[in-house]
Amino acid sequence: MMRKVMRSRSGKTLEVILEVKGGRISHLTISGDFMAFPSQAIDELERALVGRKAEEVEGVVKEVLRDAELIGVEVDEIIDTIRELASSR
Amino acid sequence: MRWRLLRLEGDAAFNMAVDEALLRSGVPTVRFYRFMPSAVTVGYFQRVESSVNLEEAERLGVAVVRRITGGGAVYHDERGELTYSVAGPLNLFPRDVRESFRYLCEGVMGVVRWFGLEPQFAGVNDVLIGGRKVSGSAQTRERGVLLQHGTIMYATDLETLAKLISPPREKLSDKGLRSVLERVTTIGRELGREVGFGEVLEAAIDSFSFLGEMEEGALTEEEWKHVEELEEKYRSRRWNFRR
User: Fold this and answer.
1) CATH code of the domain containing A83
2) B44 contacts on A by Cβ (under 8 Å)
3) Nearest to A35 among B50, B70, B243 (CB)
4) Residues B138, A35: C-beta atoms closer than 8 Å
5) How many domains are contained in chain A?
6) Closest CB to A15 among B50, B69, B70
């Protein structure tokens, strides 16, 4: 299990806990003191990323969060944090 | 527009269940309440272990409950904090999320002014006095209904707050008690006198009347049913520690 906590440009916190098995994400939690509208978008994102490889992260995040509004964290910060963890060995 | 004014308070699980019941019903409501006993709420997306000092919470017997709204961890001091919530159909508020925060935080700004102090609106959802945070708000929207709730600190024990709300490791270096006292304040501290719940409530009712006429009311039977059902969720470890 890998964990990364980062301070978003807005000052809020983004924390990702992630596990990779056989090159694919097998478990993922995205947390922090940000806000998301609708809030289900983050739950949905966690589900959608399970079974994906690091190279797929950007596409999945952009697709799932396409119509969501985030406050306190940016889509690219979510992508970078998850991708970094998913591609580390 | 006529708003139902609700004065209904209890422990953290009850309070959060009532707010979610308001989100479900969508009856235009302004609610003022306390957490009895004092409690910590965490944002919908937060990990409890990363945002609350659980050892301290256990030592003090302070419950930790997950909100349905995002944002950060909040210490609700039974003797020092008034919480407001506003719920209603989306068309009663600015469509844009940031604008709706600004609009509803006017109620909080008015409370600060009521005491003769000068509020500043900061970021998306904070109200400050002299650069220090005195109020934070959070919001969610579901099935055409908006719910926003937030804090107004008038006598919160800031030392206890600092102990309970433990920042993630990455932030620890620049925090600690002194830094909390520099960043957070209460109306009483700013006034240099004791402030009681009664006057804050009076100020809040007065100030939130910018929304429209308010009439004291009660939950409907259906809302009560939802409260009972939702309370169970807010008392469960499964919900409160889900992240």
Assistant:
1) 3.30.390.50
2) 39
3) B70
4) yes
5) 1
6) B50
Distance separating alpha carbons of residues A70 and A37, to the nearest angstrom: 6
Domain ranges of chain B: 2-222
Q: Is the Cβ–Cβ distance between B204 and B111 less than 8 Å? A: yes
> Nearest chain A Cα to B138, which residue?
A35
The whole-angstrom separation of Cα A18 and Cα A30 is 9
Between A6, A11, A31, which is nearest B45 by CB? A31
Residue B46 to residue B73: CA distance in whole angstroms: 8
- Residue numbers of chain B with a pLDDT score lower than 70: 167-176
The Cα–Cα gap between B231 and B175 comes to 34
To the nearest whole number, what is the mean pLDDT of chain B? Answer: 95
Displacement of CA A65 from its chain's centroid (Å):
10
pLDDT digits (tens, 9 = 90+) for B147-160: 999 999 999 999 99
What is the reported pLDDT for B18? 98
Which range of residues forms the domain containing residue A33?
2-87
**pLDDT 10s digit of each residue in chain A, 89 long?**
999 999 999 889 999 999 999 999 999 999 999 999 999 999 999 999 999 999 999 999 999 999 999 999 999 999 999 999 999 86
Q: How far is A63 from chain B (nearest CA, A)?
A: 20
The alpha-carbon gap from A2 to the nearest alpha carbon of chain B, in Å, equals 15
The CATH architecture assigned to B2-222 reads: 2-Layer Sandwich (3.30)
